[in-house]
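hiii so um. not sure if this is the right channel but i have a protein structure encoded as tokens and i wanna go backwards to a sequence. like what aa goes where. can anyone help
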């Protein structure tokens, strides 16, 4: 710590003088950091995975999960959140399968039930920590000592699919200090996530501002993994979707 202010010896210098060699570690992506927070603490601390989808949530959902608990029995709702506590099991009669999972957003959570009729339609879209939009019917039961609210799922859509269908352009703002390594890393990332959405580079400096629309060769699929890696290189506030 003191080495940062010019006093003492830095860890890197100390390691070099002692003959210890450290490998260059890759910086964790935002989703990786959040995943480790949840694994270690049991909750998301610095942010929530759904923060990235605020625009889509506002557009497609009329209320959050906490508000869904106030809806009456048999109300139809559409909610967005992250999948947790996923359990795929046989039905009671043994003739099919069902899924039980918890849907979480920054405001609350709700238990979701996928019955045999829609199982085949949604099973491939559900996985632990997946960001999804879920439509279904409220199952409210206040007959016992404690009222319970669950959601009978009728449809599941991956947030990646929603973004892909509704994004016209990916905007990448290059920071003041952008190295040749950063540019190379961005080209690698774009090449690993090919798609149909064009990319525009924003070069903003004190003396000038330039917008450079990349050729069709660099069109991408703005999936969660692409956004996460691009933000790791440029910073979270430097990646925008139009």
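sure thing!! here u go:
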């Amino acid at each position: 710590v003191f080495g940062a202010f010019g006093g003492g010896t830095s860890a890197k210098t100390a390691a070099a003088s002692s003959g210890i060699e450290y490998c260059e570690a890759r910086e964790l992506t935002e989703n990786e950091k959040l995943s480790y927070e949840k694994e270690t603490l049991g909750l998301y601390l610095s942010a929530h995975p759904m923060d990235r989808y605020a625009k889509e949530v506002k557009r497609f959902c009329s209320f959050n999960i906490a508000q869904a608990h106030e809806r009456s029995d048999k109300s139809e709702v559409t909610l967005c959140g992250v999948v947790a506590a996923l359990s795929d099991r046989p039905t009671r009669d043994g003739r099919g399968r069902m899924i039980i999972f918890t849907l979480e957003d920054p405001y609350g959570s709700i238990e979701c039930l996928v019955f045999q009729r829609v199982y085949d339609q949604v099973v491939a879209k559900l996985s632990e920590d997946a960001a999804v939009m879920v439509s279904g019917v409220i199952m409210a039961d206040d007959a016992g000592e404690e009222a319970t609210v669950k959601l009978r799922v009728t449809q599941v859509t991956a947030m990646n699919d929603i973004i892909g269908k509704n994004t016209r352009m990916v905007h990448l703002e290059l920071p003041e200090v952008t190295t040749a390594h950063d540019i190379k890393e961005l080209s690698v990332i774009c090449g690993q996530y090919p798609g149909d959405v064009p990319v525009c580079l924003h070069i903003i400096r004190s003396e000038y501002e330039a917008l450079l629309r990349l050729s069709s060769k660099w069109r991408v699929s703005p999936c969660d993994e692409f956004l996460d890696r691009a933000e790791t290189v440029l910073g979270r506030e430097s990646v925008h979707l139009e």
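oh and The chain is about 30% helix and 30% strand.
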